[in-house]
Fold:
Amino acid sequence: MPELPEVETVVRLIRPRLVGRTIGAADVAWRRTVGGAPRGRFERAVQGARIAQVWRRGKFIAIDLEREGALAGWLVGHLRMTGRLHVESASWDAGPYRRLSLDLDDGRRFHFIDVRKFGRLVHVFDLPALLGALGPEPLGEEFTAEGFADGLRSRRRRLKPLLLDQAFVAGLGNIYADESLHRAGLHPLARSDRVGRAAALRLHAAIRSVLREAIEREGSSFDAFYRTPEGRPGRYQDEFQVYGREGEPCLTCGEPITRIVVGQRGTHLCRRCQRR
DNA sequence: ATCCTATCCTGGCTGC
DNA sequence: TGCAGCCAGGATAGGA
Structure:
């Protein structure tokens, strides 16, 4: 699933193809993708706007729009499970799962493709309100070891659901939460306020190193869904220690990897490396 | 405060 | 071979 490393990869690759472009006609093939707004309203909001910048916050993709140099709102994207972004020549066939296309002034088209239709690309005027609820950026300076340790202590939640809570830390999803917990040697059901200081620091470092390594490899592609905007699969799935490895030996100790369900989410761990 | 369940969706898998 | 039924999973809303 697209999590922070996949979204970062997408943003890096589409940014040079979008910044400076002016949007022409919009073709909304699935209304909910644009937030349920009437087609005409979405089209009026984006047509003629110039893309000033493309950036990421957590798993959100933000596209700054302007008209005559003044801010004209934002396009906010979220890939959810199966969303993909492409900037391609006008003749490119976006396939049956194309949900939204925007014409660009260089003759290319920007496509939002999404099999399961959970993804969004919405026009908003108040982006700060939307992103304000997010926790710290895990690769940013504001994500300090001390703050993270305090955060764990001040709550009484199981580690896995807490790591998935975007208000606690922004950008982790099911894969990187499992991989980070394994790297730190912590059980996903451990209560956050009972995690010792040394363990909290280990988890903080594990989250950052796992995410950095995944970005270096352009994210993870373990099924047919995630691809970079250039159609390449990521390579971090080759580095998975626990995710999707149920029954296979732990690469650290040889114990078979266990799969449990935590908060409705498949959760993978090594019972020997990650004791409660 | 935290947890649990349902919802949104569809391709892919399982089992008959 | 065909088909019904179940499942995954990010985010959110509502109830316990």
About this structure: Chain A is about 25% helix and 25% strand. The domain at 4-131 of chain A is CATH 3.20.190.10 (N-terminal domain of MutM-like DNA repair proteins). The two ends of chain A are 27 Å apart (CA to CA).
